[in-house]
Amino acid sequence: MSASTPPFSAFEWLIAWRYLRARRREGGISVIAWYALIGVMLGVATLIVVQAVMYGFREEFTEKILGANAHVTVYAAPSFDAEGNPDRLIADYDGWTARIGAIPGVTSAAPMIRGQVMISAHGRALGVEVMGIRPADLGEVPLLVHPEVQQGNLGDFGEGVAIGSGVARELGVTVGDVVTLISPDGMDTPFGTQPRINDYTVEYIFGMGRYDIDRTRVYMPFAEAQGYFNREAGADEIDVMVANPDRVEDLRAPLLAATAPRGEIWTWQQASGAFLSALDVERRVMFIILSLVVLIAAMNIISGLVMLVKNKGRDIGILRTMGLTRGAIMRVFFICGSMIGVVGTVLGVIVGCLFAFYIQEIQSVVEWVTGGSLWNPEIRYLTHIPARLRLVDVAAVAGTALILSFVITLMPARNAARLNPVEALRYE
């Protein structure tokens, strides 16, 4: 029988299943098997959730960076006047914008004014960054046109200013209210430089989903910003959007050629690449660390199989005398251990995917039960917990758990196969 029986035959599965579901007094490992199964399930689920959240962080930050900021910022190298004062103003900003916009792969180019001022209303004040932009160029800022939260009409931008939802919340203002901008770099008078103080109506409130942007950013019409910051002669920079942000470095040479000889560029990858790379490294390290949790859970399979082999010594001896080969015995006990790993992994994948998919709802329930906040956007910058499942991550976690379960099962299964039937039945 043994010579003609193929590996993993039906009777081997039947014997393995009988051993797994047997009660402890019958020599089974049902309780230990459940402990091992639950451990593998929780380890796999935890690893999937952590990977989903870590990848969600990276993707969410990337989307916020690309959706709220320029892919490439073009500056002018400083020139010096007769007194040696540096000047980085772009006088021919319309020419630069036209030449940059004609480069293949560039979707838009817009002159910008930047400045830091104090904004106040209702007796409150905070520092903000003002960005002067033409109303026609607003449509090229995706998260400004389609923010997570918005109030007012963006079409009325030319009549006032647009402020972040965090700024509005700190100042206690809404659409139609008046805010005051105070710039220390104001008008020169015989008594020194006087701060420039102007009032503006809030026409639009946006929430881009990043705390650091929503609490610090104010948009102003380009012409108004030129007058407010004494930039009537030019622009501070040219903000460029490209079709493929991941290949933005391919446009470095054309951009420098279009803005020669004073052009200098700064890409989004230079500004945020180190941060995103750190997130990637952290995600890989967390995968390795939490894989040890799965390994520890899978170690319970060894203890269970060792006990099973010891309790089933008599059965092994009988099966060997009936004609089962060592390979068949080894496969029976390998099936016992691997079934625990496979079932635990499958359940862990299901639980982990469901947890990651409904993580927002779970967060809301936990916060409602505890009465506190689990997520502080002031620390983590994002307004919610991001979680994004990828098939490659789920497959990597499941594959790791299965490999660990299979490898761990081999040693006790091999010991069972090496058991001498004569020794096993000597005292029977």
Automatic annotation (TrEMBL):
* Keywords of this entry: Cell membrane, Lipoprotein, Membrane, Transmembrane, Transmembrane helix, Transport
- The keyword Transport belongs to this UniProt entry's keyword annotation: yes
**Gene Ontology cellular-component terms listed:** plasma membrane protein complex
An example GO biological process term is: lipoprotein transport
Compartments in which it is found = Cell membrane
What residues form the membrane-spanning segments?
31-57, 285-309, 330-359, 391-411
Q: Where is the MacB-like periplasmic core domain?
A: 36-254
Membrane topology for this entry? Multi-pass membrane protein
Which ranges carry the ABC3 transporter permease C-terminal domain? 288-421
Report the main location listed first in the record.
membrane
Cross-referenced InterPro entries, in alphabetical order?
Answer: ABC3_permease_C (IPR003838), Lipoprotein-release_system (IPR051447), LolCE_TM (IPR011925), MacB_PCD (IPR025857)
List the Pfam families.
FtsX (PF02687), MacB_PCD (PF12704)
| Protein family membership | Belongs to the ABC-4 integral membrane protein family. LolC/E subfamily.
Report the protein name in the record: Lipoprotein-releasing ABC transporter permease subunit
Species of the source: Amaricoccus solimangrovi
Lineage of source species: Bacteria, Pseudomonadati, Pseudomonadota, Alphaproteobacteria, Rhodobacterales
